[in-house]
Write a structure and sequence with these properties.
The chain has 110 residues and is an alpha/beta fold. The protein is built from 4 helices and 5 strands. The longest helix is centred in the middle third of the chain and has 15 residues. The chain is globular and about 30 Å long.
């Protein structure tokens, strides 16, 4: 399942992220968010190049409870999970090199 991009729901989030046996990058986004749409292809490319991680996308408009639980107050927010916990995150758009470095750093935890 790693190296792939998966859309999560409130029902599937725990299985895909919290219970994962490898690092997971979570893209908290909304369809109306312009920077979210700009960021997505960079994240997908970086994760595809690092097959020890999975990218999980979560639309916060459909998962307000999870957004609150993880204190998502601005979009896009990208969080790195390892062993079921948030270990790193960034908020807002980043350039391609910064995104690649963020994903690679967490892929090395696998």
């Amino acid at each position: 399942m790693t190296g792939k991009t998966i859309e999560a729901t409130t029902e599937t989030f725990d299985d895909l992220v919290v219970k994962a046996d490898h690092p997971v990058i979570v893209d908290f986004y909304a369809d109306w968010c312009g920077p979210c749409r700009m960021l997505a292809p960079y994240l997908q490319k970086a994760v595809a190049a690092n097959p020890s991680v999975t990218l999980v996308k979560l639309n916060v408009d459909d998962a307000a409870e999870l957004a609150g639980k993880y204190r998502i107050t601005a979009l896009p927010t990208v969080s790195a999970f390892n062993d079921g916990k948030v270990v790193d995150q960034f908020v807002g758009m980043r350039n391609g090199q910064q995104i690649e470095a963020f994903v690679k750093k967490h892929a090395e935890l696998a």
